[in-house]
Amino acid sequence: MKANQPSQRDSVYAQPLKKVSDFAFDTKVADVFPDMISRSIPGYATIIDTIGRLATRYVRPNSRVYDLGCSLGAASLAIKQHCQAEGVEIIAIDNSEAMVERCQNYVNAYRGEISVHVECTDIATLEMQPCSMVVLNFTLQFVPPEQRDSIIQKIFEQLQPGGLLVISEKVKHHDNVADELLIDLYHEFKRNNGYSDLEISQKRAALENVMRLNTPEEHIQRLTNAGFSTVQEWFRCFNFTSWLALKAPEATQHGEK
């Protein structure tokens, strides 16, 4: 699925709801997800395209790539389209059956040398194998906070020396004035993309209990604690950020220069 592929228009929260239930990646969300994500995340197409371009630099021949929290497989397909390395397998993981079903259909529609295996499972319990690249694209924010450190540690341990993790997240900020300003700018962005104040308000309520945000500093500290030698923010717009986290090459890990 390309980031700009047409889909059903997102109207999940367009009508007043007597009770706003917790947000879930169910069938009604999966049906409108491409439109929802493109109108809700600033720079989403750029992030997806860059993930594909990074794959050309970091994915090694005969290695695995993990797309954790793959939704409809946009990152997986960007990697599949850009990467020229031979013998690569992409493993796309999501815990939503509705997303996995549609992701598999999208993957099957694209030809190419790289195989994509789509699986419905919890990334917290996933038994990862050695890999050269991992993508967490707006995924960790939906994972219970107490599981996040162990997931990042597991990723670091399974990445090959010189391997890459791309992690994108919606964030909060310690400075309340700055945080509220960025939230206001983000809501204006959504209004400009056709969402009403009702939709914005109801979706925000739906996400309140399921999207637990970290600060950029907390993300960087977690990545550093896990052992990543380079952690670099490469994208930011309002309260959305993406980082590159690199595992040191083998010689560096052994203390050589």
Automatic annotation (TrEMBL):
This enzyme's EC code(s): 2.1.3.-
Q: Which Pfam families match?
A: Methyltransf_25
Example of a GO biological process term: tRNA wobble uridine modification
Which enzyme class?
transferase
Family the UniProt entry places it in: Belongs to the class I-like SAM-binding methyltransferase superfamily. Cx-SAM synthase family.
NCBIfam families assigned: carboxy-S-adenosyl-L-methionine synthase CmoA, PRK15451.1
User: What protein name applies here?
Assistant: Carboxy-S-adenosyl-L-methionine synthase
Q: What is the lineage of its organism?
A: Bacteria, Pseudomonadati, Pseudomonadota, Gammaproteobacteria, Alteromonadales
